[in-house]
Amino acid sequence: MGFRFQTLDSSSLSEIGYDPDTKLLAARFTSGTCYVYGHVPEDIFLKVVGAGSVGRSFDALVKKGGFGCRPISDAEWVSLHNTPSPVPTVSPTFVDFIAVDGDTIVSLGFDRLCGALLVRFRSGERIIHQGLPGPLLSRLEKDPHQEVVYLQMLRDGPGTHWPVSEEQWDAYCRTPQHLTPMAFDGDSRAVFSW
């Protein structure tokens, strides 16, 4: 389907767009800066555009809603208007990796746009953990004991995680998106609907 955009009469936002297939919300502020927010439910978008004060509604529901976001360039903004699906045209700088000096985990990747965490274990196993709230990702990124915090989150916490192959991992790092496990192949790796 792609993005549908709306020009706004607001002192803080000039235009807003939403793609229901990818659950991405794009916002251009009157200052000229543009951001993409990930994993935003459509009802949030509809509440913002239908509000008496779009700016206040956007601030309360989107900015303070814990959705991952990142700034995008003017060229990326234009590409969202010109393509049916924005994911391949948005720069692939979605996932920020940090090294973890732990007994079990080698690195963590933070995808704030889709609310996902990519985990590479010392054993070579890789998993993608989705459905994590933004504040939880932020806490994990700043915590000096990331490994302990994450392993507890993996056991007790929110979201869903799946083992993935190296090819799926690389593909996700290039084009993050919400994944749906369709089946598991013989070696217990998820087969995804992309």
Output the structural class.
alpha+beta
Helix content: 25-40%
How many domains? The number is: 2
Helical segment count: 6
Description:
The chain has 194 residues and is of the alpha+beta class. The chain has two domains: 4-89, no CATH class; 95-193, no CATH class. It has six helices and twelve strands. It has helices at 42-49, 54-63, 74-82, 134-142, 146-156, 166-174; strands at residues 4-7, 13-19, 24-29, 34-37, 69-72, 95-99, 105-111, 116-121, 126-130, 160-164, 180-184, 190-193. The protein has a five-stranded antiparallel β-sheet with strand order 1-2-3-4-5. Strands 6-7-8-9-10 form a five-stranded antiparallel β-sheet. A two-stranded antiparallel sheet has the order 11-12. Helix 1 runs antiparallel to helix 2. It is elongated and about 55 Å long. The model is unreliable at 85-93 and 178-194 (pLDDT under 50).
